[in-house]
Specification:
Length: 201
């Protein structure tokens, strides 16, 4: 019983450190953030942080995994496990994806920052995220094909093309401070209309 209480307390402390480290990494970036910064923000000694995490890299990995899990849960709840029209699913998927990637600075940095490519876990996360994203979109497209809504001969290739398009859009959104989520939502139907039907009258 005592051991269980200690383990629960340690888990809560680790969770607290990860939450605070998320803010620190968001503010300074992975490269500039230090264990001292994290310890100071957490109101703990640096040695106490090292008791729970071996390195800054290990904390960053926990932060990125937490953010990735949050995005996955949100997509499952609002896109994957709902019975919407496949076109609406695509729309919701794009909006939620963009919204969370804009907010989840650390996850986005792990996906896109070349400096972080030398960290072993980032390559695993990038591959896992790309695979899951393409599979999700492929499943939505197949659902639409089966319902006679989409006419797609190769859903795997179409999913790959859509993911490539989304990566270009996300880059614009992250870099361009003037493009916010309200702007994206207002223009999303036009973007998807071009995507689904092209620009020919």
């Amino acid at each position: 019983m005592i051991k269980e209480h200690i383990l629960k307390k340690q888990k809560a402390i680790k969770y607290k450190i990860v939450g605070i480290a998320s803010d620190v990494f968001s503010k300074f970036g992975f490269k500039k953030a230090t264990m001292e910064d994290i310890a100071k923000a957490a109101g703990m000694g640096k040695s106490s942080i090292y008791y729970y995490f071996k390195s800054k890299e290990e904390i960053f990995e926990a932060v990125v995994k937490k953010e990735a899990a949050t995005l996955s849960v949100e997509l499952e709840k609002k896109v994957i496990n709902v019975h919407d029209d496949p076109k609406e699913k695509i729309r919701n998927y794009v909006f939620i994806r963009m919204k969370y990637l804009k907010e989840m600075v650390n996850f986005y940095e792990a996906l896109k920052n070349d400096y972080l490519a030398n960290l072993a876990f980032t390559e695993r996360i990038r591959k896992k995220y790309d695979r899951e994203e393409q599979d999700t979109i492929k499943n939505i497209l197949e659902e639409g094909v089966n319902q006679g809504i989409f006419k797609v001969n190769n859903t795997k290739f179409a999913a790959m093309a859509l993911v490539t398009f989304l990566k270009g859009l996300e880059k614009t959104m992250i870099i361009d401070e003037e493009m916010d989520m309200d702007g994206l939502e207002k223009n999303l139907d036009d973007i998807l209309h071009i995507l689904f039907y092209g620009m020919i009258k």
